[in-house]
Amino acid sequence: MDTEYEESIAFDGASGDGNEQARTRMLDSVKMLPKSKTMGLPLKLVLKVGARYMVTSNIDTGDGLVNGVVGILMKVDKGVHQDDDTLTKPLRLWMHFSDARSGHQLRNRNANLMNNLHIPATWTPITHITVEIKRQKRSTLHVMRTQFPLVPAKAITIHKAQGATYESVMVHLSGGVSRALLYVACSRATTLSGLFIVGTFSPPRPRPNNDPLELEKQRQQTVTLTTKYAFLNAPRQERCQLLIHNIQSVRRHVALVRRDAAYLSSDFIFLVETWSLPADEFPIDGFRCVSRVDNDGGVHLPKGASIFINDKWQDMLGRSGSQLVHNLSRTGSISVAWVEVDYTLLVALYASPSTAVSLMVSVLEPLLAPRVGRKSLVAGDFNVDLMKPSGRRTNLVTFFTTYGLASVLGDDVPTTGNNTQVDLAFTSFPIQSAGTNTVVYGNNVFNGMSYQAS
């Protein structure tokens, strides 16, 4: 590439116990080391704007700035020597990564700097890092190298590319490429149209029948595991299935619900702590929202509850209603949505952490008192821990016992990552099966249960 270039020379400093002679020897010894021995930091880095470079260190794994990420150098910010303004040194590099997720957080943190320097919003700043290079295991003397964590990326080995993905990949085939390496190389491309093969492609020979991997694949087919939540997808005739989940913002997570087979195979879905407003819409294919309660102040806050029923139950709907009640100081609230389906009362509830049990009773008692001896189910996030003895626990359980309802989970089953059981379900009728399952969004697990239809 015929463009002007800058050179970034690494700064090496000796650290630890040792005399001057030992320090000099240590510094000289690292000058000729390959990058594989210097934590990916080269002694000399040639910087050309428009050239492609690869990150050689895990700068920030959570931000996608990891070893192997490739981008284009767009700009070099230079500093001037305080005694000689003809001497310059690269201080900051601006990279454009093809994957917008790489460096997204770093770009946000440097938004003001980028605006002041008129830097495009898609460029990511890369600065020096410092690593420790040890030459002898038992020696306390080591070298601290400071350099940009980049190397030119004209081509990389298959091993180096492992774990990365690219829009365009050209694989240069040579003799002796194993099946495993060929798979790694070709699967780096995100699309088939972005994969190019140079050389003669010869498909690897099939594995023999006695190959250990083939034998293991055959063995695994004979010992398939039955998952904890297999009953959610099991065929059912006279059985109803209900999922209850503290979703902690339905707007943020409803897309995941729409793709979750456990939800979509259910008869009823309770979503609590929805953070919803009356104008929010969050439909689920195959289901109808028959009752919901939202925030009342125009702000998305941790309140709300919604009940969805499968379309096949539309002809069995009865009365429905909802209620949002605050305590006098408005420091606690209870959100309740309810519906009658097939002569069964279903109640979804969310109580904020500071809500008194007496407030829950005042809302639930008018619903349950007229139905003693009939089928009722109340479930949601009560923010009362049934795993620990307390006055709140005793009062809540006593209330439900008075009207013939009991908890469906054992006292030793946590429903949160904090080892508490605050996501509860109480019923006045037998449950065929019930359990909890961890989800990737929110701190609370979801509860699932099935029961005999009327």
TrEMBL record:
<dbReference type="InterPro" id="IPR027417">
    <property type="entry name" value="P-loop_NTPase"/>
</dbReference>
<protein>
    <recommendedName>
        <fullName>ATP-dependent DNA helicase</fullName>
    </recommendedName>
</protein>
<feature type="region of interest" description="Disordered">
    <location>
        <begin position="1"/>
        <end position="20"/>
    </location>
</feature>
<dbReference type="InterPro" id="IPR036691">
    <property type="entry name" value="Endo/exonu/phosph_ase_sf"/>
</dbReference>
<dbReference type="InterPro" id="IPR051055">
    <property type="entry name" value="PIF1_helicase"/>
</dbReference>
